[in-house]
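debug: dumping io for the single-chain case to check the tokenizer round-trip. Nothing else runs in this session.
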Amino acid sequence: MTSTPDSPSTDDTLVIAGRAYRSRLLTGTGKFKDLDETRAATEAAGAEIVTVAIRRTNIGQDPSQPSLLDVLPPSRYTMLPNTAGCYTADDAVRTLRLARELLDGHKLVKLEVLGDERTLFPDVVQTLEAAERLVADGFDVMVYTSDDPILARRLEAIGCVAIMPLAAPIGSGLGIQNRWNLLEIIDNAKVPVLVDAGVGTASDAAIAMELGCDGVLMNTAIAGAREPVLMAHAMKLAVEAGRAAFRAGRIPRKRYASASSPIDGLVG
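debug: decoded output
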């Protein structure tokens, strides 16, 4: 099949834990003004996987309150329960076991164990412990981590199904600050690598994909924008463009320009 801008190649799918997805943009569900905006932004992003902060979002824990599942049904979206707000391995494991019960045995989860309230950097020691316990308990773990290539290798060896290094601190909007670390992780990983945290605008998402990341996860960059639904659409286009550019292969960087056309054979 020949790819065109309006007809992307059907064989370029993102495979996580054995399941294929056409969208490489994963979105969060927090920080929106209401559930209607959450739904509209998710649709505009074209996301198929959406993260849910179990400690902050109602997915059935409180039957008297509106549920996220009413606007983002699991029949249409893959729920990705996450451990946002957890600072110990025990809390993270407990939270994801609760999510599994609420979602009828759901196995795909996002692990994040924070170590600092100001920067929200991960506690890598607690993250490793939690990952080992969750994998042993049958979970498919996508793991938020620092941009340390050695740590990424260890998390993959434990059995995590995706590595999710930060590009900059969570919610900072600083963009890709660590491209060489990301490249090292990408070059050595045998599981998907997705940038998680730090994206501020569409060009940041495109750069992450051009580097070879398999996907991008974001929440604040969309929900915090002046027009979240429009920004969600922009992020969708950026991820698609960055992926296409990566697959196409950029020209080498050169110190000097060279003519686009040869001089030989010019008339006159």
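debug: round-trip ok. Residues 26 and 217 are 4 Å apart (CA to CA).
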